[in-house]
Queue: 2 jobs
Job 1
Amino acid sequence: MITTNEILLRAKAVSQNAPLSCEVKNKALKAMADALLRNSDEILKANALDISKAKETVSQVMLDRLRLTTDRIEGMAKGILEVADLPDPVGRVVQSSVHKNGLLIEKTSVPFGVVAIIYESRPNVTSDAAALSFKSGNVCVLRGGKEAYSSAYAIVKALKEGLRECGIDENYINLVEDTTRQSANELMTAVGLVDLLIPRGGKGLIKACTDNAKVPCIETGTGICHIYVDKEADLEKALKIIDNAKTSRPSVCNAAEVCLVHKSIAPLFLPKLYDSFYSSDRENKVELMGDSEVLKYINVTPAGENDFDTEFLDYKMAVKIVNSAEEAVAHIAEHSTHHSESIITEDGSTADYFTARVDSAAVYVNASTRFTDGGEFGLGCEMGISTQKLHARGPMGLNELNTYKYIIKGNGQIR
Amino acid sequence: MITTNEILLRAKAVSQNAPLSCEVKNKALKAMADALLRNSDEILKANALDISKAKETVSQVMLDRLRLTTDRIEGMAKGILEVADLPDPVGRVVQSSVHKNGLLIEKTSVPFGVVAIIYESRPNVTSDAAALSFKSGNVCVLRGGKEAYSSAYAIVKALKEGLRECGIDENYINLVEDTTRQSANELMTAVGLVDLLIPRGGKGLIKACTDNAKVPCIETGTGICHIYVDKEADLEKALKIIDNAKTSRPSVCNAAEVCLVHKSIAPLFLPKLYDSFYSSDRENKVELMGDSEVLKYINVTPAGENDFDTEFLDYKMAVKIVNSAEEAVAHIAEHSTHHSESIITEDGSTADYFTARVDSAAVYVNASTRFTDGGEFGLGCEMGISTQKLHARGPMGLNELNTYKYIIKGNGQIR
């Protein structure tokens, strides 16, 4: 077994190579996609091994996340080709000036260097993260969940095959072999070797990283997203948006978890919301958890102590009545994870108040929180959704996987 | 005494206010500058108290940093007025797109919220940091060194007076009253209350922050800056640049500490460097510390074990002979603090090699490292020089004191 430290030293060495040209990177990405497809059988075999081991210990939902099919592998290959089609983020001159003494000062985008990604059981993250890191000029060190190790190993083996075919150092893409907690801790504390750490996964993983990381780390993901139905809301829009934000894909971080309703429209709106979510037409009914004021209007589950601080990721939604937009904003400030929030209102000045005050990565007016996504925002792809304020906020695309440096050219200038 | 936690809670509350308009902020900055001048006597008295207490325990250099004069207070007021003249960084739409469904997606610059600044004994940092934080829409929590507490208190008192005169909440600017290590630790770990921590000072302070901070932190300052004299260097340029980078202000972070010399020009160049730095015309001779190869050409101090890893901040420079540009780049990768490095060469491809490979905030060709500065780079001001890669690199001006959020306006769009 190669130790995590050895992998990091190798990765650091490769990151000090000359940057690859866009042409070379795109050619390699195509070879990586081809190699994935060519090795489908081997990858499926490895995945079957993971599945058979995991069967007894993990839930059906987890098993489904873990399972690969020919279709899913084709999807992964397609994802890599899409990354190849995106513009190269490296080497953009993002700001340029000429000093009065003639110095040319160019603020230029450059890769971070070594990007470590700690993730959980979805095997497709392996190829997505590798492709995004590679295209953005970074060397990646992938550390997946132990349930998916054989799958990840087979995928990385195919990707490395693609790199080698193009004469590129295979150590641009690395998989950590140790899947115990120790390797995660090693990545979090590898000062000088890891230039950026990105945890992708549940609350526990993110918290472990933000608590323990000594290397630069971007917090991603968890979303307790709110929708506030203002007194000036168009109630039909509100119903449609809440339905979409809650039920179109409840397991993702941009799904809504909490609905705040202005008291003056509550008597009218809450029964409509109830009729919609408890309708016998629905395959999956949404359970509403109401505060004591809500219970005066609709007969739903009384909200428990933690219901306004829980990312349900399920057909569940907490509902609360507020006295004003100010109170909605204050509730969000206290309970949100700063991911995505939306106000439903026809009143422009209340909308402006809400967008100015709510301190989240994405703040919506009259739209579903489900749009917080790299593809939807026009970034073309996404490494994750940052819920922190340093460096990147919201969906992180290729540009967010670069930092910059100043390159200054002179002819003997002194100060 | 107000506890640090109380100050942070107050600061957080103020940061949730509506953002101030540029006009209001500039008017307040002018009132703050006036208030500083008006309260000069009181500030000088407070400073005299600090000086008399510090006299027995600190060095002459420290005492000089700590000392205020009427001139210096005028300089501080002028600095505040210069900040007022800079463009407002808040509310810039840095990217805008329209989704095919009609959603307007605007990536908009916003303040971080509460910015905590831990610094040492220069009293002018108090007013500089307060002005930059205020103009960038942030609420600042200042925590200066204990030697300068009375001066900082008097300065903040005057600044708050300026705010009150304009009807603005004086809690936009806050000074931590506890100057023990405990308050620094409280700021480093105030998750949810401090949105950004900026340490400004020596290596020990920076290291304490990066080791212990649980809140987002920007590493600033320490500079072990290198100048590499290539085999194709114009030696007269090289001498002039090294002289400037080393001696124009040895105590600052962008001063050069190490000179690397290509072996093929060493026999010609080193005697010239020696003649320049040991010239009897110089008021301050520069002590060179050479590796064993250097000692073959010039009779200087043998370099000690740590001389290539020391920020001298003094009339001292370590010198080493390298066999190639590759070796220079490798030495820099191992020993630099990623602040500023320069190559002296007339060979364009070697220059390109150097600027592409050296992983520092500022990489120069044929110019002095002393230009790494917010003013010189056209930012108009500077909160510090970041030596990290996340968020901001190099000089941090007003824009770097902002983060962004996406504001998305729709009319009922669902995904």
Job 2
Amino acid sequence: MTSEDAFTVTPWEVKGEVDYDKLIQKFGTSPITDDIVERLKKHVKEIHPFLRRRIFFSHRDMDWILNKYESGEKFFLYTGRGPSGHTHLGHLVPWIFTQYLQKEFDAELYFQMTDDEKFLHNTELTLDQTLAYTYENALDVIACGFDPKKTFIFSDIEYSKTLYKIAVKISKHITFSTAKAVFGFENNTNIGMIFFPSFQAAPCFLPSVLKGTNIPCLIPAAIDQDNYWRGIAREVAPKLGFYKPAQIHSKFIPGLGKGGKMSASEPETAIFTVDTPAVAHKKIMSAFTGGRATVKEQKEQGGTPEICPVYHYYNLLLKTDKEIEEVCSGCKSGSLLCGEDKLRLSEVIGKFLTEHQRKREDAKKIIEKFMLRD
Amino acid sequence: MTSEDAFTVTPWEVKGEVDYDKLIQKFGTSPITDDIVERLKKHVKEIHPFLRRRIFFSHRDMDWILNKYESGEKFFLYTGRGPSGHTHLGHLVPWIFTQYLQKEFDAELYFQMTDDEKFLHNTELTLDQTLAYTYENALDVIACGFDPKKTFIFSDIEYSKTLYKIAVKISKHITFSTAKAVFGFENNTNIGMIFFPSFQAAPCFLPSVLKGTNIPCLIPAAIDQDNYWRGIAREVAPKLGFYKPAQIHSKFIPGLGKGGKMSASEPETAIFTVDTPAVAHKKIMSAFTGGRATVKEQKEQGGTPEICPVYHYYNLLLKTDKEIEEVCSGCKSGSLLCGEDKLRLSEVIGKFLTEHQRKREDAKKIIEKFMLRD
């Protein structure tokens, strides 16, 4: 974070109000344009709301992936999760979108649980704890509706025989200087964390290794993970004879705290998939909003949906753009008060949670169909 | 290597004429004393020639290991090999001694093949090559006569599921600064090499992890490997709730080149276990010796066995001290000429190789009994 930046985005920290246009410039990615959306339309039944709403806003090599696809080379999807705690609604964004891509493109998904990284990064966490969260989080992944025949979820720890073999080949091409420049490692960083980028890059090449043929890879993930692919996987790919992975990046869903803050240490700032609708209701009713200080001011001046978590959760959960527009214009005009708005969101989220938790419970019976183990 | 040192000893380089007393001081180990040898006599049928001849010359915590043993806590043995090429006679020194310890103390042996390290360290080597050498070198280990019921040979790559889980726990306690100070890593060192010390330390705790109880560990190894145990395993052990591994260190067997040089890039400077007796004969007859420039000088002034590889190979291969003394005094007095001496060594080595190669061939049939795999 340089002094002129008002925000930080790294794989371990997202801080401040993120300027996504600046991020595209800074990371050197490309914006999702209408042209790309038009091109996608040729292959999908409908454009996903997350694309229309530019929650997925940036990419690398989407054109290339579509060229490959159109010339008959199918791609696989790769995304993942750092299992340091329970899944919250923000985590679901890339997974929901990935499930859409799997369905529309009939693509295999390799889903990595970085339980090693979370253990290595967090002083407080034991390996048993991150392994337990791998299981808990996997239930949420499965609840998103992935195809058990085409989805392979793996824990770094439990699948390390296969991954380590690929990771050592990657690591041979990455010096400490490079890792330091990409991730900001310091002299007091532990050597497990320093090696870890090799593990996170490994799944980019995993299906190619398993099947003995070069397969294009598309990574849907929040933009904070870009470093791994830009700095490591895409650098090393040609040296190992693999394609560079393409990427499509999502924004972050703000938390419920002041200024959209979401903090693992403050569970009231996030809605977890294991929260009961009643708990979620309480969190929503206490949330920070983009509304005015008083009802009078709100009615006169209207609110600011752009900075309002309630609005962002609608963006995530409401299917039609018409519904969003209604809420948005109601808020801006002052006709919709924050109280009503939160009540409505609480109802939407309550329904979502009830449904998700049912699927999550079912996932317990079929989880082994998804898990890839050595 | 500081400017005043005339030699370097690191896990990847042994250079110059090694002053073993200085090394004990520098590394902070303890010399093998007559007291220790006397104490060992209580437990073994006979003192191994390598101990009598102080080829094993240094240790850490041998007293402690014997205290444990005498109080009824059995220890396990751990040693290993970096499979970057074929085994030469120098490599056999710790293995022969380890086999003796296994037999005398009825101890389990965990034998690590660091095929990952050799791949990561050598630009030229592919992973397939180091894996192939793991197999070749394992045959030599088995030919040393280890008990198949109590010996577990494993490749880092093939046993990485178990090892990685231990290694990440170790690595969490080792900063880059520490690894740099211990191994001299630099900014251009690859991140696989930086992580690797965690893998080499892991077997110190492996049986304790597998059996769920703390078991003392004794490592017989050449002294160049000391860094791993001093700087990593012994530092981390108490943090993970394990005993610090004890060690017993051997000297290096000089090569056949000028000044006792042995170089992987010059195969004529070492005798490999796969060399035919004829090839070994040729190498021995061309070897550098501690003899004088001319027969006349040799007869008048005698030779210098201490700097002579022929003498060191006798130390390794002749069973009785009487035989060694005969050769030694013959050389010093000038009555034994280098030519005869070499012919005799060639005969001894030829017999050794024939016998070893027979056992090595037999090992191919039983290797799977020894291999530990995930």
